[in-house]
Structure to design on (526 residues):
DNA sequence: AATAAGGTTTCATTATTTGGAACAATCCGA
DNA sequence: TCGGATTGTTCCAAATAATGAAACCTTATT
């Protein structure tokens, strides 16, 4: 037996440590100084220093000599291109998102699960043109977004338990579910219902309906949501969009399964 | 003295090897089997196997159990979001690209240099909406694209020499420059001229004019190009767009320098 | 000029990676 | 159904690379 499952705990080997450092740099969202990183990482000075050097050499980080700061490197952009095309639903789902966007005229998100968090891989704005990398690649919490709850609800039991454990419950709004028990009950309800709602749990005034994208075998591939504001629409109004949403989710699932690379 | 410069040769340490494997997987552009990778990498079986396991554990690769294939993982997409925002000119350049696109009505590329290759970080199509990750993150050759030549021309002498060495000259068309000497002469001319042209060197019927984006100190930050086809326009026609192009390049450079992160 | 803070290098110790070879599982043609 | 490939996985002693405390530079600060 082997563990092919996703790394819940920490680091295997040097590579793991290096990648943790990558995350640390990326998480900051701005160029970081050595000392800042040192404060957060629990590696000794010399170790962290060498990891940073290696990553910089490899183009995974860039180092600004003038300001003495590290930032994520362009090699990532190149690699991500491949990842987005191959491992995300986005390229397959694109035409379906376009159609749904046209039909409902609201903001649409396509998301997948990554390390207990929601990773947005594509988006359509209510009207405006789409926003490149600045939107795709964004992450969000699992426990208080429509897509997050939709995906977690349909995870196999043990994966679901792991995912719940990874949540860092924080009360973004008065309606946020702030503990594992409440979340579990909600997920049961979602599983029964087939879709999930975000009832202003992440942001005041923002609501959404979301559906999981499930493979024929029931595996969670991702989730799809329609988002709006309480000023434009209501939860009941979103409920009316449910058929369009679930149909699109089904179509994406089918397309993904049938297209699995020619060869 | 230290080597902070980019890795021209190969691997430092385990991390380097792991990242090489990442490249190998990403380069294929489709899910890969263990044996395929084994054939190309010069690592022994067991070593490659463990590297793949580590990367999979880390979410840098995904493993499809059914098909026994590896593909780039979603963790990359998350990291790339940060990279694109912080290390690329794209977020800063966006409004300028929009304006230029509006003005000239042709395809526009924003590129940066990565390991001797051209990395496209943003794009505007002649008319259609833009194309997310499917366009950003793409790579192209340095020696036969307008942006590639524009950037190489303005590199410091030793970096330029390195970059030229990394080119894998291939005659895409009869007009492609196919050796280092021809390329060097061309780069001299470009440096004198201030802009570069792609005279159907990469693809028959496709021409472009490109300008480097240079910092106040003369460092190459990227390049900007306007692309068209010989059916729509001519090299002389592109020459007329030169002022718009170089002005935009200058504006982007200024914006990039003045905005260098508040803090 | 002295002190502090941030960053870089050294080197003996320690832990991880290595890879040949044995092992298991799966596929294929007869 | 049976060999014989082919492909993927595990072992373990030897080789190698990572470690981190401390010393050492190098800029800022007073």
């Amino acid at each position: 037996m082997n563990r092919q499952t996703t790394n819940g705990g920490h680091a295997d080997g040097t590579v793991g440590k290096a990648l943790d450092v990558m995350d640390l740099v990326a998480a900051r969202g701005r160029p970081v100084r050595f000392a800042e990183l040192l404060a957060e990482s629990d590696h000794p000075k010399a170790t962290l220093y060498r990891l940073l050097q290696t990553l910089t050499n490899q183009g995974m980080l860039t180092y600004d000599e003038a300001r003495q700061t590290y930032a994520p490197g362009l090699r990532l952009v190149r690699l991500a291109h491949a990842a987005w095309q191959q491992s995300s639903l986005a390229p397959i789902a694109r035409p379906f998102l376009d159609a749904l966007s046209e039909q409902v005229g609201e903001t649409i998100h396509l998301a997948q699960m990554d390390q207990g968090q929601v990773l947005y891989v594509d988006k359509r704005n209510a009207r405006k043109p789409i926003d490149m990398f600045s939107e795709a690649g964004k992450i969000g919490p699992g426990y208080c977004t429509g897509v997050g709850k939709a995906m977690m609800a349909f995870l196999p039991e043990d994966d679901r338990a792991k995912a719940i454990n990874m949540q860092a419950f924080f009360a973004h709004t008065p309606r946020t579910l702030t503990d594992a028990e409440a979340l579990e009950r909600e997920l049961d309800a979602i599983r029964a219902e087939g879709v999930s709602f975000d009832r202003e749990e992440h942001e005041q005034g923002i609501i959404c309906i979301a559906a999981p994208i499930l493979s024929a075998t029931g595996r969670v591939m991702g989730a799809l949501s329609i988002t709006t504001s309480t000023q434009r629409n209501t939860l009941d109004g979103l409920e009316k969009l449910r058929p369009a949403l679930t149909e699109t989710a089904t179509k994406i699932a089918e397309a993904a399964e049938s297209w699995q690379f020619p060869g």
Summary: Chain A touches chain B through 70 residues (CB under 8 Å). The first strand of chain A starts at residue 61 and ends at 64. Residues 13-14, 33-35, 38, 45-46, 49, 68 of chain A lie near DNA strand C (CB under 10 Å from a C1'). The CA atoms of residues 144 and 202 of chain A lie 5 Å apart.
